[in-house]
Amino acid sequence: MSSDIRRHDKSDILMHWFNAGCWLVLLVSGLGLIKNERLNPLGAWLPDALRSLFGGGSAGGAALLVLHEAAGVVWVLGLAWYLAVNARGARFFLREVFSVRPGDFAWLARKMGRMTLGVGGELPPQGYYNMGQKAFAQASVLGGAAIALTGLVLLLSAKVLPASATGLVGWAVTLHYLAVGLVFAGLLVHIYMAAVSPEERPGLRSMFTGHVPEDYARHHHGLWLDALEKDALENSAQDKDGPGAGENG
Amino acid sequence: MSAQKLAMVIDSARCIDCKGCLAACKQANHVSRGTWRNWVKEAAPPVENGPGGSRKLGRGHFQPGACMHCDEPTCVAACPTGATYKNAADGTVVIDPRLCIGCGNCIAACPYGARFRDPEKRIADKCDYCPERRAAGLSPACVDTCPTRARVFGDINDPDSDAAKLLAANQGKVVRIIARQKDTRPNMYYIASTAPQGWTVQPADPLSFDFLAGVVAPAVRWAVGLSGLGVLVMLGRQLMAGAGPAAGPGQEKKEDGHE
Ligand code: HEM
To answer: How far apart are alpha carbons A144 and A137 in whole angstroms?
Structure first.
C-alpha cells in the first residue's frame, strides 16, 4: 500500500457530517411544513404523514416548525463555529471550489457521459476537487447562504418583522424553496458518487479518517498531488538554503 | 362536505349600525388595537326627487359582515403551510397561529378584506366564530350582542337551527356577496337585499407565490427528477458492470486514463 496523504482536517470532517445531519433533519421537517395543493412536491400525503408523527394536523405541523427552526439555528451556529476554528480551511475550500480551470468543463461533460451512457473521451487531470465536486460545492455554498438568509427572514417574520414586511417574507419563502430544491437535486448525485459509486470508496473513507492513499490521489486529483509535491520540493530546497525558512501547512 | 356547516344568516334590513358587534368581538377576542375582525358597511341614502321639485333622502342600508368561511376559500389555496384550512368538523376556515409564518398571502387572496396581519401577534387574523364561546354553549359575541337580531348564527346542515329555519323561511330571497370574477361560495347569507355592493376585491396571489407555484416548484421538480434519473442510470451501469467479468478495480483503472 502506498503512503497516505492528508486530505481533511478533523474540523472539516466534523463540519461535513454535522452539516449532513442538519440537512437530513431540516429537509425532512421542511417537507412536512409545505402543505399547499400547488406546492406539495409529492402530494399532500407527505406532509400529512410527517405531521401525524408529531400529533397530526396543524398541531403536528406546528411541532415540525419548532423542530425546523431549532435545527436551522443549530446549523447556522455550527457553520459559524467552523468558520471560527478553521477560517484557513474554509478559505482554502472556497478558493479551490470556485477556481474553475480550463478543461474542467470537458472533464464534467465527459465524466457525465461515461457514468451514464458509457461514452466520453479522456478525462483532463483534476485538482483538489474535480469539476463535479466543485459544481456541487458551489451550489451548497451559494445555496446554503441563500437558505440561511431566507431562513432567518422566515424565523423573524412572526417574531419581530412588521406587517409591511410580508412582501419580503413572501419572496423569502420562494427563494428558500428554490435554493433547497436545487441543492437537493445536486445532493442526489453527491450521495451516489460519494457513498455508492465504488470508484470513490477511498474518498468516502477519507471523510472519516482524513487521509487518502497516494495512488488514489494521483489518479483522481493529479494536479493536487503535483502541487503538493512541488511545495515539498521547494520547501526542502529552502530548508537546504537556510534552516527555519519556508514553514507552511 | 363537513358534518356541520356553521354559517351566519343576516337580515341586514334590521341592522341599525350600532356597532355593538364590532365592540363585542374586540372585547371577546382581544383583537389588537387598530384592527377589527368584523364590520358594518353602509350604503348612504340616495337623494331622491320628491313631489313638486322637492328633494328627499331615500333609504340607506347597513350591511354587517366578517369572514364568510367560504366553501372554496382562496385564502386556504394561498397558504403555503396549511396554517389556514377548512375545519372538517364544522366547516369554519381556521388559522392555526402556531403554524402561521406571517407571509401575508392569505390577506391578498381574500376577496372580502376579512384578513389582516395582527400587529402584535405578527400573523394573520380574522373572525373564527368564537370557538371558546361555542365550546361553552354560547353564540359568537357579535351575534349574542346584536340588539335587533340582525345576525343569526348556526349550523345550516341542521334543519332545526335558527339559521337554517331563517334560510328556509326566506327561500328564493337569499343573497350572497361575491367577488366579480370569483365565487368563493361564502357562508354568509343575507336576506332579501343588501347594499352596498361591489366592494369586494379580486382575490390575488402575491407575485412571489405565483412565481413559486408556477415556475419554481415545477423547475425544482424537473431538476430533482433529472438528477434522480441520472443517479438511477449510473447505478444501473454500476450494477451491470458489477455482474460482468471486468468488475471492481478493473473499471477503476479504465476510468483514470489521464496520467
Ligand atoms: C449521506 C450523505 C453524505 C455523504 C455519504 C457524503 C459524502 C461525502 C464525501 C465522502 C466527501 C469527500 C469527497 C472528497 O473529498 O473526496 C464529501 C464532500 C462534500 N460534501 Fe458530502 N456527503 C453527504 C451529505 C452531504 C450534504 C447533505 C452536503 C451539503 C448539502 C454535502 C456537501 C459536501 C461538500 C460541499 C463536499 C466537498 C465538495 C465535494 O466533495 O463535492 N454532503 N461528501
So the answer is: 10
A239: closest CA of chain B, how far (Å): 30
* Contact present, B105 and B206 (Cβ < 8 Å): yes
Handedness of CA B70, B72, B75, B81 (dihedral sign): positive
Grid cell 394561498 in the structure block, residue: B78
A190 → chain B, closest CA residue = B231
Region for B49 from its dihedrals, namely left if φ exceeds 0, alpha if ψ lies in -120 to 50, beta otherwise? beta
* B 193-212 → A contacts, CB under 8 A: 206, 208-209, 211-212
Q: Residue B82: which of A36, A178, A181 has the nearest Cβ? A: A36
Residues B102 and B201 reside in one and the same domain:
yes
Predicted model pTM = 0.90
Q: Are residues B204 and B215 in the same domain?
A: no
Shared domain check, B218 and B135: no
Domains and CATH numbers, chain A: 4-235 (1.20.950.20)
**Residue B48: band (very low, low, confident or very high) from pLDDT cuts 50, 70, 90:** confident
| Same domain flag for B109 and B215 | no
Which strands, in side-by-side order, build the sheet including B151-155? B151-155, B6-10, B188-191, B174-175
Asked if B240 is an interface residue toward chain A (Cβ–Cβ < 8 A), one would say no
- B196 and B221 together in one domain: no
- The tens digit of pLDDT for each residue in A29-83 reads 999 999 999 999 999 999 999 999 999 899 999 999 999 999 999 999 999 999 9
Domain assignment of residue B215, yes or no:
yes
Task: Check residue B251 and give its pLDDT.
Answer: 39
Band of the pLDDT at A247, cuts 50, 70, 90? very low
ipTM of the predicted assembly exceeds 0.90: no
CB pairs under 8 A between A and B: 174
In the block, cell 406587517 appears at A163
pLDDT over threshold 80, residue B2 = no
Residues of A in contact with B94 (CB under 8 A): 58
| Nearest atom, ligand 1, residue A183 CA | 30
- Domain range for B235: 211-244
Per residue in B108-122, pLDDT (tens digit) is 999 999 999 999 999
The residue whose C-alpha atom lies closest to atom 34 belonging to ligand 1 is: A137
Cα B255 to Cα B259: distance, rounded to the nearest angstrom: 11
Count: domains in chain B:
2
Which 68-127 residues of chain B touch chain A by CB within 8 A?
77-83, 85, 94, 96, 98-105, 107, 116-117, 119, 121-123
